[in-house]
Amino acid sequence: MGHSAAVWDFRAATEITKDQNGIGQVVLRTPQGASARVSLLGAQITSWRNEQGEELLFTSSKTISKALKATRGGIPICFPQFGNCGSLELHGFARNRMWAVDENPPPLPANDSNGKSFVDLLLKSSEEDMKCWPHSFEFRLRVSVTTDGDLSLISRIRNINGKPFSFSFAYHTYLLVSDISEIRIEGLETLDYLDNLFQKERITEQGDAITFESEVDRVYLSSPNVIAVLDHERKQTYVIKKEGLPDVAVWNPWEKKSKSMVDFGDEEYKQMLCVDAAVIEKPVNLKPGEEWTGRLQLSVVPSSFCSYC
Ligand code: BG6
């Protein structure tokens, strides 16, 4: 691209456009050519590309762009719940709402801005949502791409209610993989997990690393803050670093469930794996005026380079 980071105007590298359905989206670029795209619908990350322009997140070819519905892929933001409980919509309403660009966010540490292409988005409680979740909040999301091409997401949720409230949360991350049967997750072995395929039964993981040969729908509890998803065929590793997010949801629908999902191709389960940094088992409790922060940083390294261990 011929630009050095020293003269690169990171602000100017943030472009607001419209997607094919006329919905606002923000494109972030780095001087080295990495990029990310964020939709104002749900603040969903819809693309993350490395310096070679290769896509790193899965999006279904069958995804349905319906008014105010998250699309199938990328990183939908799940709040104020992950899963399905009570009268709230599955995985919460935040992913199905229009967010605004936040022109004046409260400051973050300088490290979260310097040398990064970023945008701040904001969702506030609406009267409509208060009917099923009667709590006032401000949800600020900073999405950044670093000069190394890492994708960083910082969520700050503030209670502006008169009373405490609690919530669960997930970055529902659809990683693009070469072949699910060649994938290994490291960092979750020996942990307890809740198995959604068996009424949330609590099971202790026995294997050395997590591999895939059938449907998986689990929530690993109290995991380390760094985990790795190794893609043997592509010879690359996704490194997932998280803070404030103790749990990790792991999901692959496999063959039968794929066929039952209208917005998902029958064979697409082979090219995706959801590994979601989350707070699920013990919801976050926020007193009036308090703020919670949950950080996710995704990077890709060659599999021989084991910086996470
Ligand atoms: C996973 C859940 O995280 O998300 C699954 O554990 C669910 O049970 C999947 O089917 C997809 O959810 P949705 O709402 O995007 O279809």
TrEMBL record:
GO cellular component: cytoplasm
CDD domains registered for this protein in UniProt: D-hex-6-P-epi_like (cd09020)
Gene Ontology terms describing biological process: carbohydrate metabolic process
Presence of keyword Isomerase: yes
Catalytic activity annotation: alpha-D-glucose 6-phosphate = beta-D-glucose 6-phosphate
PANTHER family per record: APOSPORY-ASSOCIATED PROTEIN C-RELATED, GLUCOSE-6-PHOSPHATE 1-EPIMERASE
Species this protein is from: Vicia faba
Alphabetically ordered keywords of this record: Isomerase
Keyword Glycoprotein on entry: no
Alphabetized GO MF terms: carbohydrate binding; glucose-6-phosphate 1-epimerase activity
Descriptive protein name: glucose-6-phosphate 1-epimerase
Coiled coil: none
EC number: 5.1.3.15
Family designation: Belongs to the glucose-6-phosphate 1-epimerase family.
